[in-house]
């Protein structure tokens, strides 16, 4: 039997997972997420067979809605090109992820800012479809432990000036939509 650790930034985003689900709540943002997930995995006698990160994400273009499986993630607030130039060697930023094909796929930009303005949204949309605040950190930690990882993101807002209000209004319905996708597409049995 495959063991799965579900990782979510907030309890609200995981509110509809069944009792007894192996779930880690990391808090919001990349650093806290990385620390909590690393401590969790390092403290386990048996590592999970896979990690599934669930959570909400902002849409970087109009008309994007639903639940997506992330096929590429990068840290949008890390200047990898400049650092590569300064250091004289590559510092890659981004990871292509295998997907199951059970859900539509999307590219994800992760950073430590809640995106809530159209200028930033438009800039990020050049390289991503969605934005969040933990995905790249979950992938980095999972990779360091050699654990396969899947990112499932539900679009909660449009990453524009209405995003903060929209997120609070939409998070419970988003958690329900994530749960339904987990069941329907056999990520949770």
UniProtKB/TrEMBL annotation:
A Pfam family annotated for this chain is PNP_UDP_1
Choose one Gene Ontology CC annotation of this protein and give it: cytosol
Query: Which GO terms label this protein's molecular function in UniProt?
Result: adenosylhomocysteine nucleosidase activity; methylthioadenosine nucleosidase activity
Matches recorded under SUPFAM superfamilies:
Purine and uridine phosphorylases
* Residues in Nucleoside phosphorylase domain copies: 26-171
| Alphabetical GO biological process terms | L-methionine salvage from S-adenosylmethionine; nucleoside metabolic process
Query: InterPro entries attached here?
Result: Nucleoside_phosphorylase_d (IPR000845), Nucleoside_phosphorylase_sf (IPR035994)
Record protein name field? Nucleoside phosphorylase domain-containing protein
